[in-house]
Design a protein that fits this description.
The structure holds two protein chains of two kinds. Helices cover 32% and strands 17% of the residues of chain A. Chain A has two domains: 4-80, Beta-grasp domain (Ubiquitin-like (UB roll)); 89-156, [2Fe-2S]-binding domain (DNA polymerase, domain 1, Orthogonal Bundle). Chain A contains five helices and five strands; from the N terminus they run ββαβββαααα. In chain A, helix 2 packs across helix 5 (143-156). Chain B is of the alpha+beta class. Chain B has a domain at 15-22 and 466-604: Aldehyde oxidase/xanthine dehydrogenase, molybdopterin binding domain (Aldehyde Oxidoreductase, domain 4, 2-Layer Sandwich), CATH 3.30.365.10. Helix content of chain B is 27%, strand content 26%. Chain B has a seven-stranded mixed β-sheet, sandwiched between helices. Classes of the chains: A alpha+beta, B alpha+beta. At the A-B interface, helix 2, helix 3, helix 4 and helix 5 of A face helix 1 and helix 17 of B.
């Protein structure tokens, strides 16, 4: 239980080395070892999606994998989206569309949406609804989140919004 | 964006930090030397504690301390009643940790303090408790029967019981041409915010100072009681608010953990953090909504209501917590709704059972009772051959009948009065938007193999109860403007709303404003955040502070220029006279040089005169008769809110509330078995609404009837989105399935329940 492992991973372009217990989840590693507390834990059993991060391009629930499974991985978290104070296009669309209230679920939605849009740059509304259906938000009722993701997709395709 | 800000969809000031992962929720805070706490909770619904063995847990490396009630060297306080504290409840209050008996699954029995949460949870597995299980009381009928007593000293399981009335119901029913009686059941569910509860206590007994991080909602009330419990002067207790991941009524009340975390910190001599996990959240945080309502209506043959009499039975769970009897008492009070009901009586019963205690959840009592009343109205309409909209038109109170004293429908609340408004106007707007006239003769139509129905429901909803609210505006010499308020933010955009009001009040750029809220260290007093009161109470306090500050600015300007005040004007954030200006920053600098500060304090008191928002909901549903699956295709709601401070945020409240209400209608359900075990203790079993299958939504905020009870005219806008969802959907499904004689009387509406009902009719 207490045996530790040397772990190397890249988070938001920065290389990290740390010593972790085998049972430490990736979420707890990010939050407690690397102090990247933007990734939130809402259920710790893989349903709510709040802890979603992008691991090697795929949306992954960081509460459901161990940190050691991310050995050598490239990880993107909410802290890696903005350029300094300048929000990314997706973050800006969330801001413009009032797509957050309490903000607790937001990092997970951003991660899910980033991975989704890189796979499907021209989604329909129904496809967006399906893509984020594994993320729970208790505040917004989702409509504004769907609008923000569709707006981002349109902007990235160079379409007027 | 340019002023005026009030009435514009100003982008939220909160967003930058929340979008970049730099918000500070309670679990994001680490204090030096901090330990972590975990709680051993009762696995039994009802049991005596025979023996507690903590030795193995204490011996685990990394464990600092393990304690039970028997190790605590203070009198364990009772968790106080904050709201609806009816006589009789004092027999059913909870202490923070069980000593001899447990009364619900999830009740705290022992506490571990350890180096990290992994070790703390290992230690929980090593705690040995010998229980003697007792029979569990899991229904209101069992509670009334009283074969098993949950609190023996009380001698009964009836928390309290009273009857409220106006008029003479018996005579209304005596000769009534039409009567109908029905039983309605609403599902136990809860707020379930995305962020679970959490606290960090840093207790320095010698100073003395207890600093509790993670507080919210009603910090000044909570501080007073915590100070009392720990024998500290009030100013030795600091409640610090962090970013909050959703409240919806449940977060920020005093719970057992609000005492246990400080006790743990005092024992360990270091800061201690506790973060609720999701399973704990589903058993330890207040549940809500669980009522049975037997209601009878009397009417004329043309559908005019003569009287309503009812029994509301609330399943309160094992203890009465801070919210007292809010849920059943508000259900009774709002049972007549916005209609003319001359004679009304209600027997209200508060039953103690072996379940998690009940508290408030967005629209407490209203969501439940709107379902009961609006379903019954539709049944009556059908019986009498009257259209659903028409029967409402015949009974809605008209503007000329308002204000209307509703009578003492909650004991002690004799003055409750619906303020001015135009209920028919809000319903007419709904009927137009929903295309009611197109649908009223097509109810039950089969389209693409599914039965369609359009249901409507009306509601009235109170806002802004409780104590006064504080706001202080301070101008700093660098030109930054600070608002401090006793109101909390639970994620609804309070910072933005108050900044809008301040910016307009002072004629300044909103970007100059910082808003600090909630923490007891910021202001002298505060009322807190509940009952849709922030915009009304803190908003008006902010406005008054801004007005006072303009006044002070003029005084200072007169001093600075050594002139008469009447020769000065205040405009665009400055004091001016011909060709000269003194900005607020200049004046703050001048004040500082005089050893003063440029600031203004305000307290807004609405003298307990509530503002009532009202409106109507419509749902268009398609029901697959073969599977029992209901799709809500279209949803329209109107809500009169007096004045929209920020239309986009108002829209967010309405849509968010509505979707939450769809969960309460179809999904959210705390299911208990006969032993009092919660069967829906994870998100795999306790279902919440997701983005799949959302209806097309139209939410309309009306601003036709500003409140008379606050200068800015606001009415609450936080709960109108949720309160009539089960009502409208229940009516829609019943219309869709009228051909099968199916009438919805119980929530949630699930495919298996609908299929069973259809099977029973041979379909």
């Amino acid at each position: 239980m207490t045996s530790t492992h040397r772990l190397s991973l890249t988070v938001n372009g920065q290389a990290h080395d740390c010593e972790v217990e085998a049972r430490l989840t990736l979420a707890d590693c990010l939050r407690d070892k690397l102090d990247l507390t933007g990734t939130h834990l809402g259920c710790e059993h893989g349903v709510c999606g709040a802890c979603t991060v992008v691991v090697d391009g795929a949306a992954v629930r960081s509460c459901l994998i161990f940190a050691v499974q991310a050995q050598g991985a490239e990880i993107k978290t909410v802290e890696g989206l903005a350029d300094g104070d300048r929000l990314s296009d997706l973050q800006q669309a969330f801001h413009d569309n009032f797509a957050l209230q309490c903000g607790f679920c937001t990092p997970g939605f951003l991660a899910t949406a980033e991975a989704f849009l890189s796979e499907n740059p021209s989604p329909t509304r129904a496809e967006v609804q399906s893509a984020i259906s594994g993320n729970i938000c208790r505040c917004t009722g989702y409509v504004s989140i769907i609008d923000a993701i569709l707006e981002t997709a349109a902007r990235r395709r160079g379409e007027p919004v | 964006m340019t002023p005026p800000y009030i009435g514009q969809s100003v982008k939220r000031l909160e967003d930058q930090r929340l979008l970049t992962g730099t918000g500070r929720y309670i679990d994001d805070i680490k204090l030096p030397g901090m330990k972590v706490m975990a709680i051993f909770r009762s696995p039994h619904a009802h049991a005596r504690i025979r023996r507690i063995d903590l030795s193995a847990a204490r011996a685990l490396p990394g464990v600092t301390d393990v304690f039970s009630a028997h190790d605590i060297d203070m009198d364990l306080p009772e968790i106080p009643l904050r709201l609806a504290p009816f006589e009789g409840f004092e027999r059913f209050l909870q202490r923070p940790i069980a000593a001899d008996k447990v009364r619900y699954v999830g009740e705290p029995v022992a506490v571990v303090i350890a180096a990290d949460r992994y070790i703390a949870e290992d230690a929980l597995d090593l705690i040995g408790v010998e229980f003697e299980p007792l029979p569990a009381v899991t229904t209101v009928d069992q509670a009334i029967a009283g074969d098993t007593l949950i609190h023996e000293d009380a001698g009964e399981n009836m928390g309290t019981r009273y009857t409220v009335a106006r008029g003479d119901t018996d005579s209304a029913f005596a000769d009534a041409p039409y009567t109908r009686r029905e039983r309605f059941v609403t599902n136990r569910h809860g707020a379930v915010p995305m962020e679970t509860r959490g606290l960090i206590a840093d207790f320095e007994p010698d100073t003395p100072l207890l600093r509790l991080h993670g507080a919210t909602k009603v910090n000044f009330f909570n501080r007073r009681h915590l100070a009392d419990a720990f024998g500290l002067p009030e100013d030795a207790v600091e409640l610090i608010e962090t970013d909050v991941g959703g409240g919806f009524g449940a977060r920020g009340e005093l719970y057992p953990e609000d005492y246990l975390v400080p006790i743990a910190s005092r024992r360990a001599g270091c800061p201690v953090k506790w973060i609720e996990d999701r399973r704990e959240n589903l058993t330890a945080t207040n549940h809500s909504r669980d009522i049975v309502c037997d209601v009878e209506i009397a009417a004329t043959e043309d559908g005019r209501i003569l009287g309503v009499r009812a029994t509301v039975q609330g399943d309160m769970g094992a203890y009465i917590r801070t919210n007292g009897g809010v849920v059943p008492s508000k259900a009774a009070q709002f049972l007549p709704g916005p209609y003319r009901v001359p004679d009304f009586s209600c027997d209200v019963q508060f039953l103690i059972t072996n379940k998690t205690p009940v508290g408030t959840f967005r629209g407490p009592g209203r969501f439940e009772v709107n379902f009961c009343r609006e379903r019954l109205l539709d049944m009556m309409a059908k019986d009498l051959g009257i259209d659903s909209a028409e029967i409402r038109h015949r009974n809605l109170m008209q503007p000329a009948e308002l204000p209307y004293r509703i009578g003492e429908l909650v004991p002690g609340d004799a003055d409750a009065t619906f303020d001015r408004g135009n209920y028919p106007s809000a319903m007419n707007r709904l009927l137009d938007e929903a295309g009611y006239d197109d649908w009223k003769d097509r109810q039950g139509d089969i389209i693409d193999g599914r039965a369609h129905g359009l249901g409507i429901a009306c509601f009235i909803e109170s806002s802004a109860a409780g104590p006064p609210e504080s706001a202080t505006i301070t101008i700093r010499p660098d030109g930054k403007v600070e608002i401090r308020t006793g109101a909390s933010s639970v994620g609804q955009g309070t910072e933005t709303g108050l900044a809008q009001i301040c910016a307009d009040g002072l004629g300044i750029d909103i970007a100059a404003i910082d808003v600090f809220h909630g923490s007891t260290t910021l202001v002298e007093t505060g009322g807190g955040t509940f009952h849709s009161r922030n915009t009304v109470m803190a908003g008006n306090a902010t406005r008054i502070a801004a007005d006072t500050l303009r006044d002070r600015a003029l005084d200072l300007g007169a001093l600075r220029w050594n002139c008469d005040r009447v020769d000065l004007v205040y405009e665009d954030g400055a004091v001016a006279r011909s060709g000269e200006r003194l900005s607020l920053a200049d004046l703050a600098t001048f004040a500082e040089a005089r050893g003063e500060r440029l600031f203004a304090d305000a307290l807004f008191d609405n003298e307990k005169k509530l503002s009532y928002s009202y409106g109507a909901h419509a749902a268009l549903v398609a029901v697959d008769v073969a599977t029992g699956i209901v799709e809500v295709k279209k949803y329209v709601l109107t809500e009169e809110i007096g004045r929209a401070l920020n239309p986009a945020m108002v829209q967010g409240q309405a849509v968010g509330g509505l979707v939450q209400g769809l969960g309460g209608t179809f999904l959210d359900h705390m299911v208990y078995d006969a032993d009092g075990q919660l069967l829906t203790g994870s998100f795999a079993d306790y279902l919440l609404p997701t983005s799949d299958g959302l209806p097309e939504i139209t939410a309309i905020a009306l601003e036709e009837s500003p409140s008379e009870f606050n200068p800015m005219g606001f009415k609450g806008a936080g709960e109108g989105g949720i309160v009539a969802v089960a009502a409208a959907v229940g009516n829609a499904v019943s219309h869709a399935l009228a051909a099968y004689d199916i009438s919805i009387t119980e929530l949630p509406i699930t495919p298996d329940r609908l299929r069973k009902a259809l099977r029973d009719t041979g379909v």
